[in-house]
Amino acid sequence: MPTGLNRRTFLRTTTVAGGTAAFSGALWQRAFAGPAQPGAGPYGPLQAADANGIRLPSGFTSRVIARSMQRVPGTRYTWHPAPDGGACFPAGDGWIYVSNSEVPLVGGASAVRFGPSGEIADAYRILTMTTLNCAGGATPWGTWLSCEEYALGIVYETYPQGGRSAVQRPAMGRFKHEAAACDPERKVVYLTEDEGNGCFYRFRPAAWGDLSRGTLEVLVGSGVGAVTWRPVPAPELWTTPTRDQVQGAMRFTGGEGCYYAGGVCYFTTKGDGRVWAYDAANSTLDLAYDDDLVTGGEAPLTGVDNITGTVSGDLYVAEDGGNMEINMITPEGVVTPFLQVLGHDESEITGPAFSPDGSRLYFSSQRGRSGFIGGTDGHTYEITGPFRG
User: Fold this and answer.
1) Which domains does the chain possess?
2) Residues 6+ apart with CB under 8 A from 385
3) What is the rounded distance in angstroms from the CA atom of residue 258 to the CA atom of residue 305?
């Protein structure tokens, strides 16, 4: 780092000079040249906490749909501990919310099925006896990719509708998996790795819709700008960790959430508080947000983690710690708090996902009010309100 410059000043100068104006993704079609900055959100300020301890904009309401180690209301199913990554899927005239369990040995994933009016109709297991299932991603063909977060972790393809056993997908690599996002245009799956010197990957299946065979590739580059991909020689059985097999592989400090929309894959890195944006059409990498590049005050979004989005182009980024908020990043380049969970100071927000019609947002407080690392006090919520389409 140049003498006399702190990291924030140096990054602001070099990143903005590098320019994001050429970025062609959905978020950047109307954004200024530079990472998102604080501003007023489309829903107005957060109000006082409701009965569930959640601060929301006016017009939005919350409900608790599940508590760890307790029966899901209206069912005989006991909700799993440490709820983590999640996604929603259409199901007849209702929908399903899937949630991972980030505990060792028995982790897996569960599902809650909702009726057409949002009533809970059922809850059940879709994966069990796996380890530290952290995040994952939904596929266009209606399955949930549940990712194990340990050195030899694997991706499991699961079936939210139930009635079918989960399947291992070792061709997608054995490493400390975090999240996944499908790109149907290029027919690839992007994958993040939660290591301090981890990588960003994409998996090219031999046939789209079949993840049993294919090629795992790693992002190669030196930072913001043009990047390329190179195949990982031994993604399944290795003596050299996956992230160290390709010279020039770009390093990221703790890969977390991953979300694809409009030709861009957005992913977060917790070690440096960034939301990255990979422009798949042009094979370039840029920053949608960096908490060191916030000007004119404190960064509203810290502890970046899981990420999702809406058809309007808004990104929703959950915090691991921070102020226990979910922040929005709008297509206009504004970052602003959307909600805050009070009284869960030793927890983290996980699993943000919208119902198929975009009218409801689901997420969890992994460790709840107790903050117990085993996650036995996890809370899973639903937010309803006038989300913009």
Assistant:
1) 7-384 (2.120.10.30)
2) 43, 56, 57, 59, 60, 61
3) 9
Spatial distance between the Cα atoms of 66 and 378, rounded to a whole number of angstroms: 8
pLDDT bucket at 341, cuts 50 / 70 / 90: very high
Confidence of residue 33 (pLDDT cuts 50, 70, 90): low
Which tokens hold the place of 331? 């297509």
Q: Are strands 379-384 and 61-67 parallel, antiparallel or unpaired?
A: antiparallel
- Tokens at residue 37, please? 């900055």
HSE on the CB side for 261, CA within 13 Å?
A: 19
The pLDDT of residue 296: 78
Q: What is the mean pLDDT of the chain?
A: 92
Give 10's contacts (C-beta < 8 A, 6+ positions apart): 1, 2
DSSP letter string, 319-357: ESSTTSEEEEE-TTSEEEEEEEE-S-TT--EEEEEE-TT
Neighbour-count burial of 244, counting CB atoms closer than 10 A to its CB (0-12 exposed, 13-18 middle, 19+ buried): exposed
The predicted-structure confidence for 70-89, as pLDDT tens digits, reads as follows: 999 999 999 999 999 999 99
N-term to C-term CA, the chain: 43
Residue recorded with tokens 């079936």:
159
In angstroms, the CA 210 to CA 139 distance is 11
Kindly state the percentage of the chain with pLDDT values over 90: 90
The secondary structure of residue 71, as a DSSP letter, is B
Closest CA to 192 of 206, 175, 208, 207: 175
Cα separation, 200 vs 267, whole angstroms: 9
> pLDDT tens digit string along 140-177?
999 999 999 999 999 999 999 999 999 999 999 999 99
Helices marked H in the chain — which ranges?
Answer: 7-18
